[in-house]
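Fold tokens
===========
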Amino acid sequence: SDLKGKVVYIDFWASWCGPCMQEVPHAQKLEEHFEGRDVVFLNISLDEKAEAWKSAIEKKQIKGLHTRQDGGWKAPVAVQYGIQGIPAYFLIDKDGRFVTETTPRPSEADNLTTLIEKALN
């Protein structure tokens, strides 16, 4: 609810997830493209250990908002979103509705940028 009125791109990830880490440079470019606009990049880690989570953020210079709950795959937010595998992405519009059933990865920049632009208007 704190993010209502903004477009929110949610990224479920973990420091030990190779495909997640491969998406980081693409996510950084996407964030730069939308800098100063009403888009929030929310990174939700499934790391079991807070140290690994914090270290990955620092080492990879991952921007955006960060959160992590204890429990990994069984963390309340992971269960609520039905996370079965990572990376997993969701795009939420300014009214708090899901924009699409299958949200593109940051590496699918053209498709994702178009969806975010539409959600901003």
